[in-house]
Amino acid sequence: MALLEVEDLTTYFYTEEGIVQAVDGISFEIERGETLGLVGESGAGKSVAVQSLLGLVRPPGHIVDGSIRFKGEELLDYSETELRNEVRGKEISFIFQDPMSALNPVFTVGSQISEIIEHHHDVTDEEAWDRTVELLDDVGIPDPAERADQYPHEFSGGMQQRAIIAMALSCEPDLIIADEPTTALDVTIQAQILDLFNDIQTEYDTSMIYVTHDLGVVREVCDRVAVMYLGEVAEKAPYEELYRNPKHPYTQALLRSTVTADRQVGELDPIEGSMPSAIDPPSGCRYRTRCPAAFADCAEVEPADYEVGPDHEAACLIYGDESKSDPRLHETGGGRGGSGGTGGRGRTDGGPRADDRDAGGGGLGGDR
Ligand SMILES: Nc1ncnc2c1ncn2[C@@H]1O[C@H](COP(=O)(O)OP(=O)(O)OP(=O)(O)O)[C@@H](O)[C@H]1O
Ligand code: NI
């Protein structure tokens, strides 16, 4: 059993402008000790997705569908009180982008961490304090005993984020969720914090969800990646596989726009256009309005998660074997299927599967 199994999670915001389909049916799993990177452009729904996991979405936002099983238990059945007392900051810790939102300026850093330890464990003040100093040491804070007595404002940004990480570790959670934890930091400090996340993984064997817009950062810390676009998961794969063999046109574009081992700043190719509104997203495939590989069906057929390799799925019709004439589409098409049409792309006949083709380089397949 995976540590966390998210299925069809759907979170909408009911605003005066309309229904914001921020997260629209995403599924992923996390095994024990594994780090999943949740990647995508701003507005893709990454933060709403992870906030949904912990019941942190506030009205007008609501989780309207799906399932979140953590160690086999359905978190959506938990009350707010149960989530607060039994899950948040105990089994699952959250690290935010802005460290100061998690640190209270009027208490010393050490006292804030000790308090959490005492809250979750049956320990004396002294034991909690010793553990606090040990944790500060583990996250690379020099002179931890003295630092523990200081206030948050006496810490630099990088040190504050380390303190937050110590705080997140203090209850020995099974899962840490980090939402863009390094974006507020300068590049050198960022790299150090990423190293720290790696060390923590090794030492504590904690599972992690790491939210970022940067596929380069993902490489540093993640075992597997889920690429999000406009509320949906476009592609899921182990990092190396995703990096070497991206299948979804969006992932390919995202990689071309990212600094990586093989691609320097001067060679970047930014993704054209901007993400459409989540209030009235494009029909069919949501990426189609920016997709260089889009064809007629993309406006009408919602792609499923097609298996394109081992532990590798892509939600792109290129890899589907449906066509508009396929009756299965009308079960899920929600009235979008339409009638007539071009007869699709003839993939129902067991023709060559898209995954046999090399999707690398500029062109996606050769048959369009
Ligand atoms: N309180 C809210 N009310 C209405 N819409 C919201 C609210 N919070 C988020 N959204 C919308 O939900 C969508 C997803 O937002 P989210 O913050 O999850 O994106 P993100 O991928 O985390 O982006 P970023 O990289 O900028 O943090 C966006 O369209 C956003 O405008
Ligand atoms: Ni976000």
TrEMBL record:
Region of interest (Disordered), ranges: 321-368
SMART domains registered for this protein in UniProt: AAA
CDD domains according to UniProt: ABC_NikE_OppD_transporters
Primary subcellular site in the record, as a coarse category: membrane
Residue ranges with Basic and acidic residues bias: 321-333, 346-359
Cellular component, GO annotation: plasma membrane
Name assigned to this protein: Nickel import system ATP-binding protein NikD
Species in which this protein is naturally found: Halorussus gelatinilyticus
